[in-house]
């Protein structure tokens, strides 16, 4: 597959992942599917890992990747040096931004999973779990008396954010490699551009 086509494929995959991460983060503002006071929401939710990291910061690289295949390989005013190769080089920078955004969401999700949800336990709102002990011991979930089903809610949504941000990070790393190939070797679909032959 040509580097432009590969980038377009990666971009079309990143956009739905960014939307899903944003939705997952929004749902976390409603512990157990209920409206709660802001003080009762897990701290990591307020860092907007899914909305900013894997959402907004991922949209920009995705749009750049999608546009690479249609980029004018003749470049600026017929100057090929600022055509496909420059576009592929710029995609590396945007891919790096994507890696940072995905990494931000991934780390926040891992911390939140290890820390556990904020819930009502023994009459007060606190974090009743320590070092992820609740992940393997379902009996500990009973420590959270409110909101209902807060532990599976927290676990499911942050796990989804962890997995999806991990996938986003891998896809952006792939684009870094793809962008390097495109910068060095050109794109195979630039044959005959501006009356020329071969790659540009």
What does this structure look like?
The chain has 200 residues and is mainly α. Helices cover 56% and strands 3% of the residues. It has four helices and two strands, in the order H-H-H-E-E-H. Strands 1-2 form a two-stranded antiparallel sheet. A hairpin with a 2-residue loop joins strand 1 (119-121) and strand 2 (124-126). Helix 1 (3-27) runs antiparallel to helix 2 (49-68), helix 1 (3-27) packs antiparallel against helix 4 (150-185) and helix 2 (49-68) packs antiparallel against helix 3. It is elongated. It starts with a helix and ends in a 15-residue tail after the last helix. Mean pLDDT is 88; it is low at 74-79 and 190-200.
Fold blueprint:
Elements: H1 3-27, H2 49-68, H3 84-115, E1 119-121, E2 124-126, H4 150-185
- The first-to-last residue Cα distance is 16 Å
Q: Give the amount of beta strand, in percent.
A: under 5%
Average residue-wise pLDDT: 88
- Please give the share of residues in helix: 55-70%
Strand order of the largest sheet: 1-2
Question: Helix and strand succession?
Answer: HHHEEH
Query: What does the main sheet amount to?
Result: 2 strands, antiparallel
Structural class, judged by helices and strands? mainly alpha
- Oligomerization category of the chains in this entry: single chain
Please work out how many helical segments DSSP would assign.
4
Low-pLDDT regions: 74-79, 190-200
Annotation, overall tally of beta strands: 2
